[in-house]
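Page 42, continued from yesterday. The earlier attempt failed because a stray header line got pasted into the input along with the sequence. Redoing it now with the clean sequence only.
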Amino acid sequence: MQHIRESSKYFRLLFHVQKLVQYSLTLNYATTIDSFDLFANEPFPKQKSKDRPHFKYDCSLRYFMGIEGSKTVDVKKMTIEEIENDLRDLQSKNKDKQLIEIMKDCLNMRKLLHDNLLKQLFRHYSLTGKLDVVEFLQIYCRTLNPDLYKRNGEFLHYVAKAQCMKGNSDKGLSVLKQAYTKYEGLRNFYRIIFRELIYDSVQNRSEASNVIFRKYVLEFSDTWNDNYPLICFWHICWSSSWFSDQMASENLLESSKVLQDIVKEKATILSINILREYNEDAVIRLLQSLLKYKMMDEYANVLQILFSYKLRNRDLRGCTEIIRNCQTLGISLPSNQQGRYIKMLINTNQIQDKPDDKSRRPESKNFTLKF
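This time it went through. C-alpha cells are written below.
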C-alpha cells in the first residue's frame, strides 16, 4: 500500500513538471515584458530556437491584425474542391493578391474550376470595381474554358460593370456597347445590365454620370431602335424625388419623339403603378407633360385615375381642385366618380354641422394642379 502511494507521488510530480515546461515555453513567446522577466529571473538565458512555433492561443499583435505569414498553397497537390474552398475564403477576406496568385497557379497547371465559382468571382469583383481581378478572370476563362468564355460574351458585361463601379461610366458603357454590337444573341441580357447600371447611377446622385448615360440611351434608341434603356432612364428620373433627376427626365422627354410616343401609350399604366407607391407628385408631373405635348385624351384618363385615388383616400380638397381643373379645360369625369364626390361632400358637410361631435375630419395636404 505504501509502495502504491509513493508511485502516485512520482506520477503527480511528473505531471506538474510537464505543465511547468509547457508554461515556460509559452512564456518565451508571449510579450516583450514576459521575456525580460524570464531573463532577469534566470541566471543563464536559454538558447532560443530560430523557428517560432505557432501556438493555438497566440496573443501577438500580428495574430489579432490578421497579418500572420501567408500559408503557402501547393495547388498541384490539392483537389479542385479544396482550391475552390480556399478561393472562397480569400474572397470573403478581401485577399485579392493571394487569390490571383492561386488563380495563376491554376492557370499554369491547367486546373479547371467550376463555372459557378467563376461566375461568383466575376460578379463579386465587378460589383466592387476590382477591374484587375475581372480582367485576369477573363484571361483564365479564355485559356482554359473557351466555350464558357464565348457563351458569356467574353464576360464583357462584367468589365463594363467594374468600370462603372470605379467611376468610369464612359468607358464602362463603351464596353457594354461593344458587347451589344458583337453578341446579338445576348442583347436581352445586356439590356438588364444596362438597367442596373442606370439605377446605380441615378441612386448615387452623380449628375456627370447621368449626362453620359443620357448620351448612350439616346444612341441605343437611334442606332438599334432599342428603347428599353431609354424608357428605364426616363422612368427612374421621373419617379425620383430629386429636382435634378426630374429636370433630366423632362429634358430627355423633350429631346426624343420616340419617348414621347411611348409615354403617351403607357401613361395610364405608369400612373396606376406609381400611385401604388404613393407618389402623387410624379403623376402631377406626368399630367403637366401630357398637357404640354397636347395629349388630351391621355391627360383625361390619367386625371380620372388620380381623381379615383383622391376619392379612395377621402381627400376632399384634392378632388375639388381636380373638378375645377376639369371645368377649366372642358374635361368631363365619369358620372359614378361625380356621384361619389357629391356623396363625400354631403357627408363631410353633415359632420361639420354637428355641434356636439368632437371628432375632426383628417386634414389633407394642399393640392394644386398647375397647367
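Notes: Confidence is low (pLDDT under 50) at residues 26-69, 356-364.
Reminder to self: strip header lines before submitting.
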